[in-house]
């Protein structure tokens, strides 16, 4: 980022400690801290924040005509709306999709600190390989992971064996372009358990468009890569949290409209299909949310800006966990604290929220 742009960012957000970096990665954990007020409760939030871009990304022309926010001013307004939503939820661990880089995470982190005290949040991001959109998945957290964020470079051929997508085109290979892996140690007050629970957090933003057979086949292959990561941690005795925008539906935990997926994406993540079928089981926490509240995404599919129709809402953002983590959930909900409409400043997704008691 050049000096002029950096100066504009600092002035526009009234920040004094934002870093302007040429490399927007920040995957390394320099020291461990737990800045939660209550050490035995944890609020986890999944939030696709829709093109959280401040630095200009030329390959996508964003901010610009290539994304939702046409000007830097628009992007700044959107950033403030996102910050308002996050402040209302006060998460301990926040996973974000559609983030450009660490500059944006640091701007957001500073906007969250309105009390002029020590900021409880740290930011982490491992840059992905989606050079087309420039989007990444990132982490803002009050409790630091115990390992640096890292990625899998595995590639898998698609369509995979047993694919349900109906894709009959040329086979190819894919990776998971937007994901990260890290680990947490969470203290528990349960006398029947070890003092600390080892948890692998696996975040992903899979390729979009649930109804496209080609992308469906790619998404299944991406999910097989995630399954391989999950199983490697299962073998080491870890608890698992898989979190992100999976761009697909769950045919067992139906959303508001009862959307049925073409793919087996959610079944692969759960361990019900795929090469590691039957070797582990994950549960979608959305089963705890009433079906009429199960929607996390708005898409104006018919381009008529009719937001009174429920048909444009679906649930494609998911959090899946091992049984021991599921048992510690006190509450789960999808935050619908703002309206979706053409010309809105909020994200086109809603946050998925889970409260744990350890």
UniProtKB/TrEMBL annotation:
Endonuclease/exonuclease/phosphatase domain segment(s): 74-325
GO molecular function, one term: catalytic activity
Pfam family, one: Exo_endo_phos
InterPro entries (UniProt xref): Endo/exonu/phosph_ase_sf (IPR036691), Endo/exonuclease/phosphatase (IPR005135)
Transmembrane segments: none
Designated name of the protein: Endonuclease/exonuclease/phosphatase domain-containing protein
Species the sequence originates in: viral metagenome
